[in-house]
Design goal:
three-stranded antiparallel β-sheet, two-stranded antiparallel sheet, mainly alpha
């Protein structure tokens, strides 16, 4: 596994490893490898490092706590990292972490082997498809009155909007269609696949109805950004959702006292 893990201080990652286990996971594993190389704590023949989640987040300030938890869960489920409580005090709940490089090597080898086995099949399929296409083109040219003219390029009937959404076919989902319409009508038209993916993740996590309510909240507070919508959903998830109070006769007003909302939050 030496060619996939480096023993240096910078936060780096191997593109091949990121393609196999995920970008965030590859970054975390490389950082864990760095600290394990410096650790003098051993148990059951392994080196260990101890960190709370808050300590990890100091090293990865670009991740949220929920993102870090998801990364740790993914790596533990694959058996790549091992988490244990090795503290002498029963009251100390700080976790200890170790890296199973043998398991990581197995995952990488299995992935690359499957990729190599699939490559000849893909090449053979492409060759057959190309042969069929060439045969079809020749037949069309032979039946044409002017065989010397090149076959016109067929009209592209694929809607570009369909290409922008990812393989999860979010555009075919009723929830996504409703949320995308609410977002486009009230925030701004979806600007590309990255924004659509982020909106899809919010729907997967919180459900379409709640995301629409968060969009309405963003409109009420004139904070029409996806970041604000995401923060609202996180807050509802942590503290519970509350329906806004009924509007007064004096016209629509934002729920709550705007003066109590931090200036940085209103600017989102």
């Amino acid at each position: 596994m030496g060619k996939f893990l480096i023993d240096e201080a910078p936060q780096m990652y191997q593109p091949t490893l990121a393609r196999i286990i995920g970008l965030n996971e590859a970054i975390f594993v490389q950082q864990l490898k760095y600290w394990l190389n410096m650790s003098k704590n051993t148990h059951d023949g392994r080196r260990w490092v101890y960190n709370s989640q808050d300590d990890w987040l100091k090293q990865f300030p670009f991740w949220s706590k929920r993102t870090l938890q998801r990364i740790l869960t993914n790596l533990m489920e694959q058996g790549i990292i091992i988490c244990a409580n090795l503290n002498k005090s029963k009251f100390d709940k700080t976790n200890w972490y170790s890296l199973d490089e043998e398991r990581l090597g197995q995952i990488v080898d299995d992935f690359l082997s499957a990729e190599r086995e699939k490559a000849p099949e893909d090449d053979k399929k492409r060759a057959i498809d190309n042969a069929k296409m060439a045969s079809s083109d020749n037949a069309k040219m032979a039946s044409s009155d002017d065989a010397k003219l090149a076959t016109p390029i067929p009209e592209n009937t694929i809607d570009n909007q369909e290409i922008r959404y990812d393989a999860r076919e979010m555009a075919q989902s009723d929830d996504f269609s409703k949320v995308a319409k609410a977002y486009s009508d009230n925030i701004h038209p979806l600007s590309g696949s990255i924004e659509a993916d982020k909106l899809g993740e919010l729907i997967d996590r919180y459900g379409g109805d709640l995301v629409i309510k968060a969009i309405e909240r963003a409109v009420n507070y004139n904070a029409r950004t996806l970041a604000y919508i995401s923060r609202v959903l996180d807050n509802w998830h942590d503290h519970g959702f509350k329906e806004p109070k009924a509007k007064t006769a004096g016209g629509p007003k934002p729920q709550g006292d705007m003066s109590r909302i931090p200036e940085w939050l209103r600017r989102l």
